[in-house]
Write a structure and sequence with these properties.
CATH superfamily of the largest domain in chain B: MetI-like
Structural class of chain B: mainly alpha
Radius of gyration of chain B: 26 Å
Shape of chain B: globular
Structural class of chain A: mainly alpha
Mean pLDDT of chain A: 89
Order of helices and strands of chain A: HHHHHHHHHHHHH
Low-confidence stretches of chain A: none
Oligomer: heterodimer
Mean pLDDT of chain B: 88
Largest sheet of chain B: 2 strands, antiparallel
Shape of chain A: globular
Low-confidence stretches of chain B: 1-16
CATH class of chain A: Mainly Alpha
CATH architecture of the largest domain in chain B: Orthogonal Bundle
Largest interface: A-B, 91 and 100 residues
Number of domains of chain A: 1
Number of helices of chain B: 15
Order of helices and strands of chain B: HHEEHHHHHHHHHHHHH
Number of domains of chain B: 2
CATH superfamily of chain A: MetI-like
CATH topology of chain A: MetI-like fold
Strand content of chain B: under 5%
Distance between the termini of chain A: 47 Å
Chain lengths: 275, 309
């Protein structure tokens, strides 16, 4: 009896805190569907009528940002992981003179905080004439992803049993063959986790894109922060249209979250290494 | 450094047929080249530029000139930077416990539930907010704090009507507090997962023994869970110190350091404004240098404390 009651109070505690934690999302989604009057009169209620025009106006405002962000994410993530897994293979499986030195140089980057390089990186992009281009974001994102990805992938490659390399060597395989034939396929789950972490990181980045891109080109996070409802939308709906844009901006990561939950949780737990 | 003998000895395990050593090394450097090219150009170059730029005066256009320690002296004499440092200390004192304690209690509550399914469901609910871009999370709270917004309505509902219509983010007395207390009830997905994983790592024999001895849940938490999660708490503390030291986006989006000149100024926002708004690039890098040095010393101190205990 007392056992049951103690779990009941645990459920009450968790449901209360869970509801409060999720309330901002609830507020966003519910008010994205209604008009200003209803927002003011009942902030906790459900909408009585779905104002889908809010989403139409919101989509018009951020559609191009979705396209640009998708392109930046795709190139950044693919190149980051390709460069990182090659370097990880070398660190884990090859012998060379400067190994310890290069290793130290790479991992010293894990303690360099983002704010230190923010301004000089912006100046560098400006000097390279890459302001207002997607490359002005992609190149720094690739560099920024290396240290952590190499750290994770190198440890992973070191766990692959020596016998597999031995067998491949007897078959006459060189490093490149071993890399392609079994190291790369075995690393796929790890690569998905790393890709997710980087996708979410780039998606949420606001400050650096706000320096690199001008007012005509936006990533999703920038477009959201600078969102102005279209002039023809009724005034009373402005906040609701903005909240509809917020809701749309959460959709891509939400899809990844539910499709790849396991990788998400693993990735967030391993993110402890990132500073 | 790897000696020649060592690499000879290991050489049969790696690579195909024995090749001259130089050729094998050449292959390794080819594997490393892309990663180091990116890191050299877009991580190390700006970092070195930041550290050297800290000793120069530069408006971002004409040639920078060397000013020695002037930037550091200016920063330490600046009232705005001083205010920013004090704000970040207040932020750390309040924000770090807020980040750790609620997450710990939720992890604890979830872990105590019988049944993996219930645990899984609750865990999913609490980490769901990670799907929101950070900017959205902050701007929703901007709505909450607006005069006549949710916070005012709630206070009015429980009888504090004189607070209604208070511009929380624009008032000198409340702006900093509004930023620090944003995010109620402060259950962080990452902290929750770290504590939860920590609890899963504790041997079930210990919990069984506690149950046999008739240990109450509160006693178990104080005597077993909290001491055995010390490593997790220390890790989260180190990360929280680093995180609070770098706070930029909340004041940048919500107040831009105001109201007034520096009510919600933080050191990184100060650094940002000196460069982007005032074209004082050398001085901005000087401020970044001070912060970087301070954070490094703090982190090394924390890590050392970590190891010895």
């Amino acid at each position: 009896m007392s056992r049951r009651r103690s779990f009941l109070s645990t459920h009450v505690f968790l449901v209360t805190l869970g509801a409060l934690t999720l309330y901002p999302m609830f507020f966003m989604v519910v008010n994205a569907m209604r008009t200003g009057v209803a927002t003011a009169t009942s902030p906790f209620g459900l909408p009585s009528y779905f104002h889908w025009m809010n989403f139409v106006y919101a989509w018009d405002g951020i559609a191009s940002a979705f396209a640009l962000t998708g392109w930046i994410e795709l190139v950044s993530v693919v190149v980051t992981l390709a460069a990182a897994i090659l370097a990880s293979y070398a660190f884990a499986r090859m012998q060379f003179q400067a190994k310890n030195l290069l290793f130290t140089i790479m991992f010293a980057l894990l303690v360099i905080p983002g704010f230190l390089t923010l301004i000089p990186l912006f100046l560098e992009i400006r000097d390279f004439d890459l302001l207002n281009t997607s490359w002005g974001l992609i190149l720094p994102y690739i560099a920024g992803g290396q240290a952590f990805a190499i750290f994770v992938l190198r440890s992973f490659i070191e766990t692959i049993p020596e016998e597999m390399f031995e067998a491949a060597r007897i078959d006459g395989a060189n490093h490149w063959r071993m890399f392609l034939n079994f190291v790369l396929p075995l690393a796929v789950p790890m690569l998905i986790t790393l890709a997710l972490l980087q996708i979410v990181g780039i998606y949420g980045d606001y400050v650096f894109p706000s320096l690199v891109l001008n007012s005509t080109q936006h990533t999703v996070s920038l477009a959201i922060a600078n969102f102005t409802p279209p002039a023809m939308a009724p005034d009373i709906n402005a906040v609701n249209i903005q909240l509809a844009a917020f809701t749309l901006s959460a959709v891509p990561i939400a899809i990844l979250f539910f499709a790849l939950m396991k990788y998400f949780v693993n990735g967030m737990s391993s993110g402890a290494l990132k500073m | 450094m790897v000696s020649v003998d060592e690499s000879r000895r290991e050489s049969p395990a790696v690579g195909g047929a024995p090749k001259p050593k130089k050729l094998r090394e050449y292959a390794a450097y080819l594997f490393l080249l892309p990663a180091f090219a990116f890191v050299g150009a877009f991580s190390y170059y700006p970092a070195v530029r930041a550290l050297i730029g800290a000793f120069t005066s530069w408006n971002g256009v004409s040639a920078p000139h060397w000013v020695g320690l002037t930037n550091f002296i200016t920063a330490f004499q600046s009232a705005e930077f001083g205010a920013a440092v004090i704000h970040i200390l207040i932020w750390a004192a309040i924000g770090i416990p807020l980040g750790l304690i609620p997450s710990f209690f939720v992890a604890e509550a979830i872990f105590r539930l019988p049944g993996r399914r219930a645990q899984y469901l609750y865990r999913t609910f609490f980490i769901l907010p990670v799907v929101l871009p950070g900017v959205v999370g902050i701007l929703i709270w901007y709505f909450f704090y607006e005069p006549g917004g949710i916070i005012d309505s709630l206070l009015k509902a429980v009888g504090f009507s004189h607070f209604a219509e208070l511009p929380w983010l624009a008032d000198f007395h409340t702006a900093l507090g509004a930023l620090i207390f944003m995010g109620f009830p402060w259950v962080g997905a990452f902290n929750l997962l770290i504590y939860y994983a920590g609890l899963q790592g504790i041997s079930s024999e210990i919990f069984d023994a506690a149950a046999v001895d008739g240990c109450s849940w509160f006693r178990r938490m104080i005597r077993i869970d909290i001491p055995l999660l010390l490593a997790q708490t220390k890790l989260l503390l180190v990360l929280a110190v680093i995180g609070v030291g770098q706070i930029l986006i909340q004041p940048l989006l919500m107040t831009n350091g105001g109201p007034g000149v520096s009510t919600t100024m933080t050191p990184v926002l100060y650094m940002y404004q000196q460069a982007i708004d005032y074209d004082q690039y050398g001085y901005s890098m000087g401020v970044a240098f001070i912060l970087f040095a301070a954070l490094m010393i703090l982190t090394l101190f924390n890590m050392k404390y970590f190891r010895t205990k």
